[in-house]
Specification:
Belongs to the multi antimicrobial extrusion (MATE) (TC 2.A.66.1) family. The protein contains 16 helices and no strands. By secondary structure, the chain is mainly alpha-helical. The longest helix is centred in the first third of the chain and has 37 residues.
Length: about 450
């Protein structure tokens, strides 16, 4: 299989070409939760919508942690490819497989034991409490498949192939849609059917993907010779991935706290924000795709000793992402009701979701800057800074802001939702300052020692 090299030639077109399959994969991944919520909204009650909303947010937190850890593999493989060391890239893959096998077992046990406390911590409405617990337990039984999917995606993005992860998630999405319709619409299994469809689709997708991969020629080999070096690289993968995973975990926790705050406002508010969060997964697709693509692109150029080219890629990503962000902001702010009506028949829920969406419209523009900057720093291996700025944004702005807004009499979901763009503004300022600091160091330190 040919390795995609990002270290030579034009920047914008290869970056966009690589980002498009990532975008489509993220779109299909977002369809998971969207289809679950749509089917439950059409064939269930507001309690079912609330349970799927809260339960899927809990499982999304697990997923972002795994994705963050897997970014360590993407970064390290990308750097080895940039250094023209494919054998060491194979050792990275072996180390990743061993590390993530252990993570899969740990997550399965943890989530089975923690389902009830987590639902209680999230202030799941009484009408939806048992269904939320059921959703979390069924989905977490398939944690091994969540881990396997992210492992496959991280490896292929590291070698410059964004098409294989797209194939993996496309298979899962198609199966999940069919499963939702069968278990929920036909068998009327409700929330449990939605969770079961998710697990089965992920399982079949991973098995089919492994079969496809076995038939492809890869730019590295997995053998006994790479086992010992792979064990040695587990620590390096962990070191790179943990700050990203920890930052993503805390950011997700901040959103879970906001959801818990909203849940305390009642069932309609809980369901409305649940619908809005599913829509936000779509409107944030472009900056999210650029964040992942930027990491792989920059990692290869850093490995090749071309930090200037990496920085030019950053500005190309920001400009192209911003164009899409403006369009998404318009639809989110002015047409939120139309978007929310896709997932609920209850007009109270629809208007609640649209109100919350107006705040996210502002963030559509701001994340065009922030997510590209985060991808750039990840690719440079500056994952500790990424963690710090994420923690600051989540716990110094997002959570306090949303809590204070919720205490005001007659508070709207729009006011609570403003916590997100307020946090993003601060994070952009921090990232811009850090970028200037790196540039200052670049003017005093030889290029090979910069990053």
């Amino acid at each position: 299989m040919r390795v995609t090299q990002f270290t030579e030639g034009k920047i914008l077109f290869p970056l966009v070409r690589f980002a498009l399959p990532v975008l489509l994969a993220l779109f299909l991944q977002a369809m998971y939760g969207a289809v679950d919520l749509w089917v439950v909204g059409r064939f269930g009650s507001a309690a079912d919508v609330s349970a799927v909303s809260t339960g899927s947010q809990i499982m999304q937190t697990v997923t972002v942690v795994v994705t963050g850890l897997a970014m360590g593999i993407t970064i390290l493989i990308g750097q080895k490819i940039g250094e023209q060391k494919p054998q060491e890239a194979g050792s990275v893959v072996m180390g990743g497989v061993l590390l993530f096998a252990a993570i899969a077992v740990f997550l399965t046990v943890l989530m089975q034991l923690g389902a009830v406390p987590l639902a209680r911590l999230m202030h799941a409405p009484p009408q939806a409490f048992d269904r939320t617990v059921s959703y979390v337990r069924i989905c977490s039984a398939g944690a091994v498949f969540i881990v396997a999917y992210n492992l496959v995606g991280s490896i292929f993005r590291g070698i410059g192939d964004s098409k294989m992860p797209l194939i993996t998630v496309a298979i899962a999405c198609a199966l999940n849609i069919a499963g939702d319709l069968f278990f929920v619409a036909f068998l009327r299994m409700g929330v449990a059917g939605t969770a079961l469809a998710t697990v089965l689709s992920q399982a079949v997708s991973v098995l089919l993907s492994v079969g496809i991969i076995r038939r492809r020629e890869l730019p590295f080999s997995l053998s006994r010779e790479s086992l010992r070096p792979g064990l040695g690289l587990c620590g390096r993968i962990f070191f790179l991935g943990v700050p990203i995973a920890f930052q993503d975990l805390l950011v997700s926790i901040s959103f879970l706290v906001i959801l818990a705050i909203v849940n305390s406002l009642g069932l309609i508010a809980s369901a409305g924000v649940g619908v809005a969060e599913k829509l936000c997964a779509f409107i944030m697709l472009v900056p999210s795709a650029y964040m992942q693509s930027m990491s792989a692109f920059v990692a290869q150029n850093i490995g090749a000793g071309k930090p200037g080219r990496a920085k030019r890629a950053l500005f190309c990503g920001i400009l192209s992402s911003l164009a899409a962000g403006i369009g998404m902001a318009y639809f989110s702010f002015f047409h939120g009701e139309l978007m929310a009506a896709l997932f609920s028949n209850d007009w109270d829920v629809i208007f609640a979701a649209a109100d919350y969406m107006r705040a996210y419209a502002i963030d559509c523009i701001l994340t065009s800057f922030l997510f590209c900057l985060i991808g750039y720093f990840n690719g440079c291996g500056r994952t500790f800074f990424v963690m710090i700025q994420g923690i600051i944004g989540a716990f110094l702005v997002r959570i306090p802001f949303s809590y204070l807004m919720s205490r005001l009499p007659g508070v709207s979901l729009f006011s609570i939702g403003l916590a997100t763009p307020a946090s993003t503004v601060l994070q952009i300022i921090l990232c811009a300052g850090y970028l200037l600091l790196l540039e200052k160091r670049r003017s005093h330190i030889p290029k090979e020692n910069l990053i």
